[in-house]
Amino acid sequence: xxxxxxxxxxxxxxxxxxxxxxxxxxxxxxxxxxxxxxxxxxxxxxxxxxxxxxxxxxxxxxxxxxxxxxxxxxxxxxxxxxxxxxxxxxxxxxxxxxxxxxxxxxxxxxxxxxxxxxxxxxxxxxxxxxxxxxxxxxxxxxxxxxxxxxxxxxxxxxxxxxxxxxxxxxxxxxxxxxxxxxxxxxxxxxxxxxxxxxxxxxxxxxxxxxxxxxxxxxxxxxxxxxxxxxxxxxxxxxxxxxxxxxxxxxxxxxxxxxxxxxxxxxxxxxxxxxxxxxxxxxxxxxxxxxxxxxxxxxxxxxxxxxxxxxxxxxxxxxxxxxxxxxxxxxxxxxxxxxxxxxxxxxxxxxxx
Length: 352
Known about the structure:
Helix content: over 70%
Structural class: mainly alpha
Strand content: under 5%
Radius of gyration: 21 Å
Number of helices: 13
Largest sheet: 2 strands, antiparallel
Number of strands: 2
Mean pLDDT: 75
């Protein structure tokens, strides 16, 4: 295999993921600016997060049976299609329209189309990420796999908010959507080139039928339901999604009510530095033998920091705790993955 395949493929998908996160940050600030209430922002977060929460059991089984390169290309294309729909709906490339009372007035958006497009974009990410992880596992051996798969979301979390805030400030929303289209073209070109060089990934199963997808998904659900450890992990993951959603909903309006999107971008970027700093932490932890204990202790540590920040909402304390909170995220994910893999059959790894 050519030495350039892995880093170039990783770079293409990382840029694609980062463009999606840049777009998501920009849309959140625009939804907040257009709606001026928490309800619109709440529905936006629901549209972004719900597909991942509801479809993960089925998507895992589905993607496991599909050609990985084609799945990644299809997911990237679905994502850019939703971006173009959003651009048209928000009248981005001529965002201000004429009005009888004033020469220029913002076009009124149709929120249902915005929410649906965001949900489709989220669905594309749900398809893309498992396929990318399996693809990297087929190309990279040993502990380097986690470095490639964990570094992409960590770097996106680090850079996307800050980059998005300044693109919005300097060039506006059209540049954000334009960046999504450019990175889509780059990612698809890179993926096609890698496929032409390496060839397809060997599939464990033939192409799925709806009945097979449903059977595999129910196998995952049954495995979770019959294991106390898996049930506890599922509850913890759901609670984590809810907590993240609540933090997003409360923090963004609070910051934007007194500051600019650039300030919010800096806050999120500084917290993202914690994710990057914590990438090497799983290698130092005895995850293979003490994943449960480490996961519980780190989760309690994170919860304690949130409580302290709620009691003493000081900016410097918030920044420091945001950094520490995110430092342990890669380890929490590694522990969670290790626990899941300990309680499922080998053939189900990657689907549960």
